[in-house]
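Write out this protein's structure.
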Amino acid sequence: MNRNATKSGWTVEDAAELYRVDSWSDGFFIVNERGHMAVQPHGDDALSIDIMDVVNEARRRGISFPLLLRFQDVLRARVQRLNQAFADAIADAGYQGIYRGVYPIKVNQLHEVVEEVIDAGAPFGLGLECGSKAELVATLAHLESDETLLVCNGVKDRGMLALILAAQSLGKNVMPVMEKFGEFEQLLELAEEAGQAAQFGVRVRLRTGGAGRWASSGGYRSKFGITLPELMEVIGRLESSDLEHRFALLHFHLGSQISDIRQLKQAAKEFAQIYAELLARDVPIRYLDVGGGLGVNYTGGFEEGSINYSLREYANAVVSAIKEVCDERGVPHPTLVSESGRAMTAHHSMLVTETVGAYRKDQAQQDFVIPNDAHRLVKSLSGTLEWLRAPGPGEGAVEDVLEAYHEVIEIHQEASTLFGMGYLSLDQNALIERMYWSSCSAVLGLLREAETGQHQQILQELEEKLVDQYLVDFSVFQSMLDHWAIQQPFPIVPLERLDERPTRRGMLVDLTCDSDGMVSQYVSSNEDKNFLELHELQPAQHYHLGMFLMGAYQDIMGDAHNLFGRVAEAHIYADAEEEGGFWIEKVLPGTRVQDILEQVQYFPNDLRRRVESMIKAKIESGEIRPKRGMAILDQYMACFQEETYLVNPRGVQEQP
């Protein structure tokens, strides 16, 4: 027997397969022998950190949950892997140019993330990318070396273009990418006013379209970019002013999370042909920027949100496609640039959240006895339930089970009609409801046991009806916005008890009052992705879930829905000499009630005045005593300093 096997035959390897850990983790996360999720911060087995050890240390230090964990060593490892992949591809292909990646800070603008990326990328000459005026202001301050490339994408007004020109006058390698022809004209005008010749790049719209959810970012449907006729106008303007030498970078973008590597190869070849043609017209372009789009395999499969290539294949595709065209056309190999922010940051961040409770459909106990005065529908449904629960009714009698199920549905529907007309009492209707769910559960069990492979539609219908709801202490809108907005799946795995077979089928619902505040698609080896296999909750015990690959976009794009603010955050560094192999470098507290209220213009002094006036009126009317009134006011004001999420010190309480 496998040494990790339990009495039920379940192993931690089974858990890793169920939650597809090996497929999406890229070597950074594993299920360890204790049945816990663990992080391998260097992407190999040199060091493993039990995530529950981190959770327990955070709890010991009084850090609140939900808690965002940043494994800074994972972030560094991802930056190094990307650069090494291009270095290897360049060496293998005999490419004569170099690679200079840039980090697009829109993916995660948090200062410590940006600084960690810059530091990890320093040996590789990593640069930055910005897409707005605020991002330009943030990134300019990091250009300590004049060689560091800063690519400026997005729509730019006169103030932004003027600041870019000012940075160029300081000798900084700042490259504004012209998204529209009018933007190019404005840049030339400002440069002439400043008495300097601006260097710039141009984003072109290729015929090749993108692949995946963001396919419209490339091709003719692209939001940004200059068309080929407009490109020729740009060249004409430059030639007439002898400014061809200022055109330094050529850029294209197929969209975030490119799913198909073939589309990238095709686009890179088309792009390289444009580059060769421009060189033939004495436009000395130095950089070819293939934009973003290097995908992350969120699901570990081939569903929406997945990719069909590895990091190494991506680098090989870019290098080989451009080298092939350059060699055919006899032109120099340019410096390659990519803006692969998602691939750098996604793995390093995960959200740890607690399960507050689980809600199941009410069911009758095995020894349940109906009252003597039961309604005829109650008696009829009770008889059907008794038959369904009898030993072996489903053996060779699947059709009989299905007939019983249809009878259950008819009784339930008739009860609903009678109750609506006032002909069925509330207590009798409640009995029918309890037995209805009990009957559905019994039918599902019998159909599963039969294993006929037929009636899959009814099986799926029953599984959807009977799935548990696990209430989780977080907000989808704040911490997993891409799941709500674009149905992006994220890996979600219990952090403990993975050496136990999960016996419940659950759907995760968040704290918000909205019906779509839930996780509706899961990463799993099950064919049905509408539920997640979870464990029975133990009263008064914590049950932690980890939401992985959260480091790209989710940190920065969440809103203040229901006034749930940012969660607490801890920055983790690996150290083999420390207990548990880690230490917590920094803790950022979650948003307080006062902070989130001030964002929407509710201020403590004004709120206190209003509530105090309300309480004084009750005191003066004699409805409450002064001491009690002041205690209520103190209680109200104390909430301003509390964090916005639930305080759940005693674990979970499961509902029947």
